[in-house]
Design brief:
Blueprint (H helix, E strand, L loop, with lengths): L3 E4 L6 H12 L2 E4 H10 L3 H12 L5 H13 L7 E4 L5 H13 L6 E6 L2 H15 L6 H15 L1 H8 L3 E5 L4 H13 L1
Parallel strand pairs: 1-3, 1-4, 2-3, 4-5
The chain binds BIS(adenosine)-5'-tetraphosphate.
Length: 188
């Protein structure tokens, strides 16, 4: 089974590249951002808790996102593998993911980390804000999301480096060029 963690700062292309990877390799997409936005749209208790946090660009508590991921894994029959998009975002989440996969006889194959310069992240997200009106794509919230990434999420990279599962790709350039860099990593 191919289980990939797709990693990078906000706006690095995780959601964008996930769609292409799923299409090409038939993996199941697990995006904590999408799952949380669905909870908000359905006005569930969890969604109401998450809404204010996401609006500020902060991280939703670990136990909430870990529980969502565990439910999704158990609810998927005979997967070819999973692509984890936007998860794990803390070292605690990374350890929990290893633990819950191990209990099921599974493991992460590798992490693909996309490297993108800060101004490009801001430009992409501001454009998405204009095009799609996502409420966390405003300059102030984007800057906080990048700060949260640097403080809380960046150490996740070292966690995967420590297990020999880190693979870095250049996340600058066209969507197709970045996708071919990712397929090179997967196919090797
Ligand atoms: P996410 O939904 O994961 O959003 P994101 O990281 O901001 O976006 P992503 O990286 O997927 O966007 P993409 O580059 O594809 O998280 C939102 C919030 O949910 C978080 O802030 C947090 O509050 C909460 N949350 C989620 N997971 C959590 C967790 N595990 N723990 C705690 N809290 C969690 O796309 C950005 C734009 O760039 C798009 O418009 C795209 O078209 C464009 N783009 C992509 N690639 C491009 C390229 N090569 N060139 C030009 N434009 C490109």
């Amino acid at each position: 089974m191919l289980n990939i963690v797709l990693f990078g700062p906000p706006g690095s292309g995780k959601g964008t590249q996930s769609e292409k990877i799923i299409e090409c390799y038939g993996l199941v997409h697990l995006s904590t951002g999408d799952l949380l936005r669905a909870e908000i749209a359905n006005r569930t208790e969890l969604g109401l808790r998450a809404q204010d946090i996401m609006q500020k660009g902060e991280l939703v508590p670990d136990e909430i996102v870990i529980g969502m991921i565990e439910n999704r894994i158990d609810g998927t029959a005979d997967p070819n593998g999973f692509i984890f998009d936007g998860f794990p975002r803390t070292v605690e989440q990374a350890k929990a993911l290893d633990g819950l996969l191990d209990k099921r006889g599974l493991e992460i194959s590798f992490m693909v980390s996309m490297d993108v310069v800060r101004q490009e992240l801001i430009d992409r997200l501001l454009k998405r804000g204009q095009d799609q009106g996502r409420s966390d794509d405003t300059l102030e919230v984007i800057e906080n999301r990048i700060k949260v990434y640097e403080n809380q999420t960046f150490p996740v990279m070292d966690y995967y480096k420590g297990t020999g599962k880190y693979r870095g790709v250049d996340g600058m350039g066209s969507i197709d060029d970045i996708f071919s860099r990712i397929t090179e990593v997967i196919d090797n």
